[in-house]
Amino acid sequence: MAEWKKCKIGDVAELVAGFAFKSNAFGAFPDKVIKITNIDDQGIFSKSLPGVDLSGLDKDRLARYIVREGDYVLAMTGSLGKIGKVVDGEAYINQRVLTIRTKGKTDKRYLYYVLKSSEFLAYVLTHIDSHSVQANISAGTIGEYEFEIPPLATQRKIAAVLGAIDDKIETNRKICANLEAQAQALFKSWFVDFEPFGGKMPKGWKMGKLGDVCSKITDGSHSSPKGVAQTNYPMLSVKDMGDYCFDYSDCKYVSKEDYRLLKVNGCVPVKDDVLVAKDGSYLKSIFIMNENSDQAILSSIAIFRPDQTVIYPELLLWYLKSPMTLNLIRSTCVTGSGVPRIVLKDFKSIPILIPDFRSQDGAVEQLRGIRYEIYSLAKQSRALAAMRDALLPKLMSGEIDVSKVEVA
Description:
4-stranded antiparallel β-sheet; 21 strands; Adenine-n6-DNA-methyltransferase TaqI, Chain A, domain 2
């Protein structure tokens, strides 16, 4: 620790706040832009970014606002302090988005973990510059954050330890994405293109509605949790939904008495329920409950309980996740301008192809195998993230000596 020195972020990095693109500049253009809403701690992917019209603008002047693969951006408004890594491609940063470029003897990835620390987030939340419409913090205030920094070699070692965990999480994410693509292709082959049946819909199959294949379609509690100790029962919302399972790291909890009442009211999902994010970032996550657990959900999540005498959970899951269904739901079931949400009663009338039950078996066996593999990897990633978050403060404070740690 003797070689560690106190410094400010502004001493070791250049802070660049984004360009104020006009609101009518966003659309289907080839150049990409990162807005506050695109910052995701799971990574920022070019395919999810909006386009921006650069006609009439000086591209040489805009060059300083470009971020590329491996760069980091930070939210200065709304979800203050939220940080995301650019996973691929390049993009411009919009106003209230900050990128931090290291200089001198400062490791880029080490500084990223400084910004991921709970100490930095606490600093951001206690140094808000304004509360006009949303809370804001300036680049200058962020630049004043003080922290301890070790020699460059130690920085790199710490970043390598934490980075190895994040790299494994990213590998798992890529495998899951590949498995999901396989499942989507299998579903399309069987239930859209009818390839195993000579390209024709088999006899006995019929069109119905989601309400016909579910014994229950409902949502969670419309009452917010009061907030009790984490030894009680989790109560989860859309923000706690990952791609394939729940993330419990920042969820609310309810008492045993409240949980019992919520269970009576049907706000507790069970094994094989299909859960759908219906509010805010609607449809951002759809997955099957792989096991029973003592948890309740808020009304931002919908429960689809398949009638398993009519349809397998796997078939319902991949039907809801299919691009055709997602587009249909978005075009017919969404209401609200400030916080878009899907109207539950409209869900029930969404059309669905209902194969005869025996015809589902061949595809479902494969889909179930893919689902279990995805779930296993997602659980592993969640455990890895918890380990990383536990290690991070100890490594960044020097409590753990990394000099003898081997990084695979």
